[in-house]
Specification:
Layout (H helix, E strand, L loop, with lengths): L9 H8 L11 E2 L2 H10 L7 E5 L5 H8 L4 E6 L5 H10 L4 E5 L15 E6 L5 H9 L10 E7 H7 L10 H9 E9 L4 E2 L6 E8 L9 H13 L5 H4 L7 H7 L13 H11 L4
Parallel strand pairs: 2-3, 2-5, 3-4, 5-6
Antiparallel strand pairs: 1-8, 6-9, 7-9
Helix pairs in contact: 2-3, 8-11
Length: about 280
Amino acid sequence: MTALDTLPPLREVIRRHGLRARRSLGQNFLLDLNLTARIARQAGDLGACDVLEIGPGPGALTRGLLAEGARRVVAVEKDRRCLPALEEIAATCPGRLEVVAADALAFDPAGHLAPPVRVVANLPYNVGTELLLRWLTPPDWPPFWQSLTLMFQREVAERIVAAPGTKAYGRLSILAQWRSSARIVMTLSPQAFTPPPRVHSAVVHFEALPTARHPADAAVLQRVVAAAFNQRRKMLRSALKGLSPDIEDHLKAAKIPTDARAEQLPLEAFCALARRLEGQI
C-alpha cells in the first residue's frame, strides 16, 4: 500500500469540501480511479517527466498521475474550493505535487516545470480548445511540451484527427496535424462523469514533432485556415478574398484550384498558401 492509497474516496472528498461541479467552470468530475489510471498510462512513461495538469478538480487524475510514477505534477486549478483537497494529495507525496491557484489561460508554465514535460488533463470544456490552440501554435517550435494527453468532447476529438474531404475536417485538424501526430486513445460515456455531460468524451494523445510537417508561419497559417473554414461552403477565391486582393493569383501560384473548397485541401496546400501570403497579411 502506498501513501496515496490512504486517501479517502473521492465521493467523500467532494462531500466534505462541498465540491459540487459548476457548469460555469466547465466542470465534469471523473471519480473512477481505474479510469483515471488508464488515462495517465496513455501519456506514456512519466517517471522521468514533469507533468502539467489543468483543472484537476478534486484530484482523481492527479492521483493517477502520481501513482503512475510522474516525477512531478504541477496542477493548475482556478476553483479555489478544490485547493484543500489537492493539498491533501500533495501531503502524501512530498515534493512531487505543486498546486497552483490560477486561471490556465493566464498561467505561464515557465519556472514551474523542468523538461521533459508532458501535459495530461481532463480539460474544462469551456477552455479546452483555446488551450489546445495555444499549445499547438507558439511562435517557436519545438514547444515546452513533449506530449499532450487531453480529454475533449468526442466531437472535438474527431475534428482533431479528421482527414481532408470529411465533414469533421477543419481548423483543428490542420493545426493539430501540422506540428504533431494525434490519435484518439480512449472514449468515455457520459456516465463516467459527475455530473454526466450531454455528450460522449474522448482522450487524444499528441506527440510533438521535431519540426512542422511543412514550413509556414504559425500566425499566417492560423489566419488562412480560419478564413477558409469560416466560410467552408464557399470556393476559396471567395472565402479568402478578404486576405488579399490578389488571392486568385496566390492560389494559382500555390497550385490550388481557385474553385476548391477548404475541406478539400490537404495540410500541405494550406502551408503553401500561407508561405505565399507571409508578409502580406
